[in-house]
Amino acid sequence: MEDAVLRTEQLVKIYGGRQRVRALDGIDLEIASGEIFGLLGPNGAGKTTTVGIWTTRVLPTSGRAFVGRIDVVTDPPLARRSIGLVPQFNTLDRACSAWENLYFHCRYFGFDGQRARRRADELLAEFRLGERATAFPNELSGGMAQRLQLARAIAHYPSVLFLDEPTAGLDPQSRLAVWEMVRDMRRRGTTILLTTHNMEEADQLCDRVAIIDHGKILVCDTPNNLKQRTGAQRVLELHVDGARQSLAEGLGRIPAVTSVEITQSGVRVLAGGGDGLLSKVFEIAQGYQLRDISMTEPSLETVFILLTGRNLRD
Q1: Are residues 218 and 237 in the same domain?
Q2: Is the pLDDT of residue 312 over 60?
Q3: Which of 19, 141, 271, 289 would you call most buried, defined as having the most Cβ atoms within 10 angstroms of its Cβ?
């Protein structure tokens, strides 16, 4: 990819100690300029380590990682000038006001006093925080604090922005506001790497997503292409009190059914098209104390579960 802004080559990270952990096992990724790229995976899959290496906070065991043409290991200070980071947890300076958090961030990146003051004022207005300029982080709501972290992350005009669970814990209104701000940053040309457990968020925002597990990239494609890979047009969730294994075997014999998975409360059925599917499923499930049934289209979560066999929050 000629216009790759983020790139890794056979990236490996092994954590030592009593039990060696191979967190990354030969990761190759390329992310294009102006792209919103989602990195999805269960806890411990390697997402945080990958982002940690790109943001110069973690050293790889082997392999290389680049921000533009900058090797993040050989020149971490230069790499940091090109990136912004919004971590999952609030890292605002609690001893500084909202305005001061932005001002001192700009000063750290070499802005003179006048330019830093002007940039802090601009960002407070842009992120709708002008009335809270003198408030301290513990006086801000969760949504306001996250907007301030976003503002701080782009204060020095980075070309790449890393967002780690940017809407975790936010109410729906704040989440939608953050989504719109992320889209606006992309419209300005910022390349964004997003890690999230929210499948709707990845589907709504990302141009492409990669699913990582056990330190390896399982798939990398657009959300729509990944959903089409399931080979299914419908997903049925059945909640039953009867024997799930026997029910799964019975449903698997329906011609339109492509796969059946046993869940905690019943079974999940992936099926293609075909008349009478729901009535056939219902007829078989009746003998297993059926409590509830729902039908949806395949989602990114469907793809994830098929690939890893477990939910993102496990």
Answers
A1: no
A2: no
A3: 271
